[in-house]
Specification:
288 residues; alpha/beta; Lysozyme-like; Muramoyl-pentapeptide Carboxypeptidase, domain 1; 2 domains; 6-stranded mixed β-sheet; 7 helices; 10% strand
């Protein structure tokens, strides 16, 4: 699995003190989720934030380096902390067995772990398991230390395999339809953009499991709602002639269009937008 990780040099990390304590990949038994508060999710210069965390860990806590193995921001960007094979300083007594991943949130760790961040966090967990050569547990900081971290939503999603639901987010921005395709589009077939989600993930309903990316988590007032890649797929389907609004959210209208399109193209009809349905939106023959 190839991950797009922003390395220490790229985000301006300070040199660690002393010699790093190494750990064999097979000795890992878990990925542990943490949550960092105190900043706004819309912050543009996340690298500066990561540098501040490192400075706090080294200068205030007196640690050798930043404590986390990796950090993930709201846009899904992954920052290398101590990396894969170095013992972290994120949970006393559990630094060697667990890779510590910190989500960079704000002062309200309740309902703001974005879809992009979720995908990156799960991709890190999958890569951790691949390197270890065996299945790994998903833990929250609170499992091994008396703390509220990583917040109720993060814990329910990552550890319990569920997600806290914002009832208002379940109302689609456009009325459901039956997947109709009026008109006779003249759009031409073209190579599809790269599939934007990690292996095994798909665009699907909010109430789905952790692999289902709904677009409803991008809902803070300071960010445009909806998942940008889902907007791209919806816009392409609208270009092909389907009755769909590019809002970046997987609601009944998008599900209906996906099912109708899958049936038309001989794909598995489940309404979920995975790699095959994504690719067909650009590469399948456009019919009247």
């Amino acid at each position: 699995m190839t991950l797009d990780i922003i390395g220490r040099t790229a985000w301006g990390a300070r040199r660690r003190r002393g010699t790093a304590t190494r750990v064999q990949p097979g000795d890992r038994v878990a990925t542990m989720l943490h949550y960092s508060t105190g900043e706004e999710l819309g912050r543009a210069d996340t690298a500066e934030w990561v540098r501040q965390i490192q400075a706090h860990h080294m200068d205030t806590n007196g640690w050798e380096d930043i404590g986390y193995n990796f950090l993930v921001d709201a846009q899904g960007r992954i920052f290398e902390g101590r990396g894969w094979d170095v013992v972290g300083a994120h949970c006393a007594g559990f630094n060697t067995p667990a890779v510590g991943v910190c989500f960079l949130g704000d002062d309200d760790p309740g309902q703001d772990i974005t879809d992009a961040a979720r995908a990156s966090i799960l991709a890190l967990h999958q890569e951790n398991a691949r390197r270890a050569g065996h299945d790994l547990d998903r833990l929250g900081h609170r499992d091994k230390f008396p703390t509220a971290c990583p917040g109720d939503e993060g814990y329910a999603w990552f550890v319990k395999g569920t997600a806290a639901v914002n009832p208002s987010a379940q109302t689609p921005s456009s009325a459901p339809n039956t997947g109709s395709r009026p008109g006779n589009p003249t759009v031409k077939r073209t190579p599809a953009p790269a599939y934007p989600l990690p292996a095994g993930f798909y665009f699907g309903p909010l109430e789905g499991d952790y692999r289902s990316v709904s677009g409803f988590r991008q809902r803070r007032a300071d960010r445009k709602p909806g998942h940008p890649a889902l907007v791209l797929w919806q816009a392409r389907m609208r270009q092909r002639g389907w009755d769909i609004s590019p809002d970046g959210r997987y609601g009944p209208a998008t599900a209906a269009v996906a099912r109708a399109f899958q049936a038309e193209k001989g794909l598995t009809v489940d309404g979920l937008i995975g790699p095959a349905t994504w690719r067909a939106a650009w590469e399948a023959q456009v019919t009247a």
